[in-house]
Amino acid sequence: MHIRTGDVVQVMAGKDRGLTGKVIAVVADKDRVIVEGVNRVVVHSRVGESNKGAKTGGIQNKEAPVHVSNVMLIDPEDSKPTRVGFRREETEKQRADGSSYTAERSVRYSKRSGKEI
């Protein structure tokens, strides 16, 4: 998935189109993300008591998941929405015995600016 927890994204479709927020959680098996301050819904939960006697439950506002196709990552370079690409880069790694070798790692990059995210 091209969106990860902690990314700043902009909503591109739906009732909250144009809003930006930080990704709180990613639900990969359903292709959904939860964005801070976006797609807020009212949740009614049963009122109960904790062991210390405090009341829990009632009416709460919380964020509901948004499909990942409806959000785009914000480019840190110019603060505009961008597509995300993946490329392989060669890196130098160290073994436990002190010798080094070259390996490849996958890197996310902004298609708008070409910079690594």
Q: What would you say about this model in short?
A:
By secondary structure, the chain is an all-beta fold. It has no helices and ten strands.
Instruction: Say how many strands there are.
Output: 10
Q: Low-confidence spans: pLDDT under 50, at least 5 residues?
A: none
Give the N-terminus to C-terminus distance in angstroms: 14 Å
For the report, how would you describe the main beta sheet? 6 strands, antiparallel
What count of helical segments does DSSP give? 0
Percentage of residues in DSSP E strands:
over 45%
Give the helix/strand class. Answer: mainly beta
Task: Give a written overview of the molecule.
The protein has 117 residues and is mainly β. The protein is 0% helix and 56% strand. Strands 6-3-2-1-7-8 form a 6-stranded antiparallel beta sheet, with no helix packed on it. A hairpin with a 5-residue loop joins strand 4 and strand 5.
Offer a few descriptive terms.
single chain; 117 residues; mainly beta; two-stranded antiparallel ribbon
Write the layout of secondary structure elements.
Layout: E1 8-11, E2 20-27, E3 32-35, E4 40-49, E5 55-63, E6 66-67, E7 71-74, E8 81-82, E9 84-94, E10 100-110
Antiparallel strand pairs: 1-2, 1-7, 2-3, 3-6, 4-5, 7-8, 9-10
